[in-house]
Structure formats: C-alpha cells, structure tokens
Description:
By secondary structure, this protein is an alpha/beta fold. It has 2 domains: 3-128, 3-Layer(aba) Sandwich (Rossmann fold), CATH 3.40.50; 135-225, Orthogonal Bundle (Arc Repressor Mutant, subunit A). 42% of the residues lie in helices and 24% in strands. The protein has helices at residues 3-9, 21-34, 44-54, 70-78, 95-102, 116-128, 162-174, 180-187, 196-207; strands at 13-17, 37-41, 58-62, 64-65, 68-69, 85-90, 108-111, 135-139, 142-145, 150-152, 157-159, 178-179, 215-218, 222-225. Helix 3 (44-54) packs parallel to helix 4.
Amino acid sequence: MQENLINKLNAFKVLYAEDEDGIRENIKEILDHYFKEAFVSKNANDAYSKYLKNKPDLIITDIQMGNESGLDLIKRIRESDSKTRIIITSAFTDLDYMLQATELHLVKYIVKPITHQKLIEALEAFIKSYDDNKIYNLNEKCIFDFSKSIISNNQEEFYLTKKESLFLKQLITKNRIITYQEMESLIWDEDSVMTQNAMRLFIKNFRKKLPEKTLKNIQGTGYRLIRE
C-alpha cells in the first residue's frame, strides 16, 4: 500500500462486523495497523451500539451474521446517516443482494473470501470517496479534512474556525504565498479591521493546530505552507 494512503487511513476510525471468529480476528489485525482506531462486533445489534458510541468513519460489515442481516444494520444507519462510508463483505454473489446493497450507497461490495488485495482495493475506494481535494496531507502523519475543517494526526484532532479553514484552503489550493492583502480580504470582513495585533493573534492560534514548521512567514509579504 502506498505510504500516503496509510497516512490517510491513520486519521480515520473503522467498525468491522463479522460473526466468524477467525475472519474477524484476522481482519482486525490488519485494520489495527492501518486505522486510528478499529472496533469489532460479531452481530448487528452490537455493531449498531458501537456505531452510536464510537462514530466510526467507515463500517465494514458482512451481509449475513447468523440470523441477523448486515443489510438491515445498514438500512437502520442510513435512516439518519448518509455520510458514514460502508463496505459490505459477503459470500453471496446473488444479484438481488447486490442491488439492495447498491441502493444503500456503498463504497465497495467485497465477495468473500476477503483477500488482502480485495481489502486494500476497498480501502483505496474509501479514501477516494472523499475526493482528492478534500483530504490533504500536511506531512506524513497529519491530514487536513476539507469537508470537516479538521486537522488530525494519530493522537489529536483540531477543529478549525471558519477563518482558519478558509485561510488553510487558500494556502493549499493556491500552493504559493498568500499575501497580507489577500488575507485581509479573505479573513477579515467589512465590519472588522486587520490590525497587527489581530493578525498576530490569529497566526499564533492557527500555528498551534498545525504541524511544527508548516507555516512560514515571508517577511513583508505574507505566509505559505512548507511541506516536509
């Protein structure tokens, strides 16, 4: 797996539901290595409880778990949540199952057995579902999620203010120095003034959320991002 994909997965939480102990334990070992946190369940009811408690970014669930259905679990989640990404695993290749699964807006449908290659392809699809312009690597251990306005690493998450998020998006998308004049028009509205004290305070608070040495001041001009 590409290094930058591993770094991106490390910012997310995953929930894996599978009733077969051997499969669940084997896949859990892989998920523990790639994800920030990995939770497991052996039935749909427990999976739903852990979904509510832990708010995973990705759910991987088997379609059939004893007398319970992974499809019913997903339908229950989709009643109030259209954003959590979901991957289904199943021994079934029945068209009816696949059509039902498609209607639930899945990232991927994995036909068992779950090989390492199939799992990696599904995880790549999970990352791609966020679009390239929504997940940005600030360094090898830290990402910026455009859609959530969150900077996260393996230990912490920092929520950006509206002004901080706007500024960081400009730094990333333009990939050059953002001048003081641009900052003033972007960050400060018509009802406020960009004083030197206000600027210093803004930058001071903003730097606390960024990896060290990421934001460089170009004397007399503005700021730009520095990637390691």
